[in-house]
Amino acid sequence: MDVNDWLDDQGAPEADWTRVVLQRAMSGQLGDGGEGVLLDMLALTQPHACRPHLCTPGMRGPSDRSCCADLEVSVADEEVDVIEEALPEIAAAMHADPRWADGVPVWNDDGALVRHSDPGSRRKRCVFAESTPDGLRCVLHRLELQTDREPGELKPLPCRLFPLALVAMGDGSVLVTAIHKKTARDLASRPARVFPCLSKDAPPLYESERDVIESVLGAEVYDAIVVAANA
Q1: What is the DSSP secondary-structure string of 67-113?
Q2: What is the spatial distance between Cα 65 and Cα 55, in angstroms, rounded to a whole number?
Q3: Mean pLDDT over all residues of the chain?
Q4: Do residues 38 and 48 make contact, with C-beta atoms less than 8 angstroms apart?
Q5: Whole-angstrom Cα distance, residue 119 to residue 124?
Q6: Burial, 159: exposed, middle or buried (Cβ in 10 Å; 0-12, 13-18, 19+)?
Q7: Which residues, including other chains, have CB under 8 Å from residue 15's CB and lie 6 or more apart?
Q8: Sheet holding 30-34: strands in order across?
Q9: What stretches of the chain adopt beta strand conformation (E)?
Q10: What is d(CA 100, CA 137) in angstroms, rounded to the nearest whole number?
């Protein structure tokens, strides 16, 4: 799904992002991504590494949380349509999961899938998250790889981006930011400290998420982030 279409569909998070942009600019932490793209370098340079074994319910610490188990995701209408069309294929891929034992779930009036029995730790994870010995994995992402679909053809944009986030500013520009201790509240997220992927001893977020940034925003934006990070 096109990023601009997604932003038009979802709208900007309800927070004073003008304040955030001014703070970054005054502290020298606002980068220029070109063509109306602003870069929150404070968030983009924080340590990040995907650690599914540390954030999976039943395997994680008592205070740890994860994107696939503890966050609500806003999905655009176009993304819902694509997922709904692929539900039989998804159900076949999730056949071993008790939540899919009775076949294909249905959408309720709130735009969420009605799940079947969800016992124990499975209660705290996305309906599309499958349990593996190494932690949770996204079945939508797996199907994209196995069926030669384009990246993001099934997986919703917020899930692809996490912990990155896009904010549509009032002047038409877009701020590329991420969940960080300084932005979590503005993004209506849990605190950054509860996500194991944002802990220490990891490369900068922009490096670990290079493929996603280039795929969603373009190689030019990634190159601009590298320039800003090394300025």
Answers
A1: HHHH------HHHHHHHHHTHHHHHHHTTTSGGGTTS--EE-TTS-E
A2: 6
A3: 87
A4: no
A5: 9
A6: buried
A7: 185, 186, 187, 188
A8: 30-34, 37-40, 174-178, 164-168
A9: 30-34, 37-40, 106-107, 113-114, 129-132, 135-138, 164-168, 174-178
A10: 16
Compute φ and ψ for 211, nearest 5 degrees: -60, -40
Question: How far is Cα 126 from Cα 88, in angstroms, rounded to an integer?
Answer: 17
Residue written as tokens 């709904």? 84
173-226 pLDDT per residue, tens: 999 999 999 999 999 899 999 999 998 899 999 999 999 999 999 999 999 999
* pTM of the predicted protein model: 0.88
Rounded Cα distance between 202 and 191, Å, is 18
Q: Which helix (H) or strand (E) holds 117?
A: none
Residue-wise burial string across 45-59, b where 16 or more C-beta atoms lie within 10 A, e elsewhere: bbebbbbbebbbbeb
Distance (Å, whole) CA 181 – CA 200: 13
Question: Distance (Å, rounded) from C-alpha 84 to C-alpha 192?
Answer: 32
Residue 195 near residue 54 (C-beta atoms within 8 A): no
Contact status, residue 153 vs residue 83, Cβ threshold 8 Å: no
